[in-house]
């Protein structure tokens, strides 16, 4: 199975990719993750360092494919996940699609392309030009990572359009959206209502994930280090999420145990382990959904105008509610001084509508 993970820059694609790759490996699959972002840090938390890119290696060998060995470009990461970084075209010149094409060509020459149960492409998606859409040519499923904000969903909609386009000539489906770094999902829900697609998971902003990047480790490695090899591989999210969220529990108590000096170290460690394992279960749940080879969808993206209108209506109703509250409390305050703010409110409404709907 070939997967392509897309999303706006900085949204959490590589974090999500690395943790899904490990989750799939924990389910017994042989996994290769290919970083297709010129930033070439996709596999950093899997290997703990920036591995040499395919393009740099090919350049060093003067594009003599026969002189490149698998160990020059394929590095084993945590939990047996193999890692490749495609690298980027020279800035301001060349094409990301060419780089992906060269990467796949080399992996085929090395007899590595068909050796894996799962190949996961981690690709940026701010602009899905022909080049950056290239990994979709090789993929069975696209997965989109987004937050609950306008830019992330705007990128998601462009990626959905690319999937629809590619699906005309390739057996490609959109497996769904993963919400990341967001406690809220109202805009995501509004979007999928208008452009139907599954939502595989929604993950909040989690300090341990930010820390895992700094430490150059995935969450699974952190869980294994904290809790030993006994991570609950069998548990699924519905079982876990039926109780109180361990993240809440851990953060209430202070995940590093420092907020309550009277608590024993063992108890703090237990909380930390439970919280990290809880997040790992999110990724295991996504892996399990993918392993069922879901039907997915061929999306029908919204026009830019529809998307602007949809998201601004939602944002606006939230803002209006809070503005209304602010205005009514200000009105009550001002009223006692003999002033009226009703006019102010309607001018706010008009300027907002003009901005989005002209
Ligand atoms: P991308 O690959 O989309 O550019 P990254 O995966 O590199 O994004 O993530 C960007 C930053 O956001 C990293 O520092 C990462 O640790 C952090 N991050 C990603 N997801 C989360 C999350 N759910 N909670 C907290 N930090 C996150
Ligand atoms: Mg990345």
TrEMBL record:
Co-factor requirement: [4Fe-4S] cluster
Main location: plastid
Enzyme class (EC, first level): oxidoreductase
Matching CDD domains: Bchl-like (cd02032)
Binding site residues for Mg(2+): 14
Region Disordered: start-end pairs: 242-268
Entry-linked InterPro entries: NifH/chlL_CS (IPR030655), NifH/frxC (IPR000392), P-loop_NTPase (IPR027417), Protochlorophyllide_ATP-bd (IPR005971)
UniProt cross-references to HAMAP family, sorted A to Z: ChlL_BchL (MF_00355)
Protein name as catalogued: Light-independent protochlorophyllide reductase iron-sulfur ATP-binding protein
Gene symbol of the encoding locus: chlL
